[in-house]
Design brief:
Keywords: Membrane, Transmembrane, Transmembrane helix. The chain is mainly α. The chain contains three helices and no strands.
Amino acid sequence: MADTAARTLIRTQGRKAAAAFGPRRSGTRHPLVAAAMVLPLAALLAVVFGGWEAVVTQASSVGVMLGR
């Protein structure tokens, strides 16, 4: 029983720290928001690592196959 005051103090401080960051929302992010967050990074990585040419090659191959 002697440790209850210390545990209560620690628990209260944790709640104050969590409240400082704002309320937590539960739920999921809208797919368009997620895509808007991911696509710029994906494009940057494709350009930096030379993946852009591979994407263009694959897209043209698919276009040729669909055109037949």
